[in-house]
Cytochrome P450
Amino acid sequence: MATDNPLTRSAIGLLCYLVIAYVVRLIRWRARSHGRPLPPGPRGIPILGNVVYMRQPEMWRAHQRLCKAYGDVVHLSVFGQHIVVLGSQQAIVDILEKQSASTSDRQQHALIELSGQGFNFAFFPYDHRWRRHRRVFSQHIPSTVPQEQISIQRQYASLFLRKLHENPADLRDHIRYVFSATIVKIVYGVEVADEHDPNIALMAKLLAALQGFDSGRMLVQYFPILQHVPMWVPVVGAQLRELAEWRAAADEVKQVMFSKTLDDVDHGRQNTSVLARILQELDEEKDVNVAEEQAIAKNACVTAFEGSADTTFSTIQAFFLAMSLNPDVQKKAQAELDSVVGPQRLPDPRDKASLPYVNAVLKETLRWHPVAPFGIPHTTGDDIEYRGYFIPKGTTFVANTWACMHDPDVYADPDRFLPDRFMRDGKLDPDVRDPNDFVFGYGRRKCPGKAFAEVQMFTIIAMVLHVFDITPPLDESGQPIVITPRVTGSFVVYPEDCRCTIKPRSAQAEALIVGAAGESSTG
């Protein structure tokens, strides 16, 4: 008989095992889900799931189209990993805010440590370790920004004006410098001389790693076992070498910047930075594990730099692009500044409440160009139910912030830059969806540096509008170049082209620029 053949018996045995395993898994799934279905979504390929769909460019637009077809809660699967796309404010609030006790976790995978991002507590699981890091961060960069930190922000903003005046063609370098230098000064107490300062180059390596971290091109992200492949293996080996470089950069940043501050503290030099205060507090405490607390301080400080420098860098680029494309908006903001601030001084964060239209320009910049279209995805720590759908533990939530900011039912003509959408009767309209409630994250994972970033971006925008005219770039014959707004990147996105012409508004404005720069260099 055919069944006497050992190979046949083995094949039958394997088939029986697979059938039994499938039935057992099905029974367990039904018991766990209580018969509730997963959210709707497109059918995937066996084993691979929806991996082909996930390789599209501008996934925020693809997810927006997907939600129009299936609803605002859509299920996908990639190599067995459950993914739920949230395409509306209602779904995001209901799941990530109202059920935050169960939806504040993060997916853990090998790429986090391999890329050197293991220090960033934004990627930590929702546990005691994360709470300790966030507590340290929030104590020293609180929701009410200390005056000392605001003064440093203003000092570097003034220096930014001078750099723009002297060499407007290097706009991106100047933006990178001002945000990097500001946060390095506040967090570490270290002065950054200029764009060529070695500290800037060091930090740039770290930010490059963050962008590559979620590019989707690293094979080890999908197949963790590949981290053990020898470096000489084609493709994978090259990626592992790149990851090793990022990891080394992160380690170097943590140690070099920490050592600079520690040296100041140990030798009694004046340093009122965030890290210096943490170290001084540790010296005064008893019965504390100093090495462990120092490690937390290192992580929190580098996270502060990474979270602030890159996202604000992108937002201010978008602001310059928007102003060059919308002269009417620029003139209206400048008229408000002229009326409230006057020609004798630069605007100040204390003017914020009196400058509703400038506030609207910032809100519209955040809405028009969401820096992180999906933020950092949340993960369920427990099985949950929503609208009768079963969402199992370990599911990754992708909140489409970009779609919420470009919802035509909320923002008419969403691709246009229109700060007036936030205004009513000369004041900010509280009934309009506020981008600040979306672009800084959700629930218990909302960015703890939100207030700090808002103050810094407002200060930069108000100062720039007060003293500069921003117009389109010119070609060799002096004709305006038409820039089409496009973005590059995935995890954090940047304007592809933000070239513009930047000139002082008047001789009086030029005097303000020079005078403020002199104060910042001596302050």
Remarks:
- The radius of gyration is 26 Å.
- The chain has two domains: 30-108+373-406, 119-372+407-516.
- The mean pLDDT is 89.
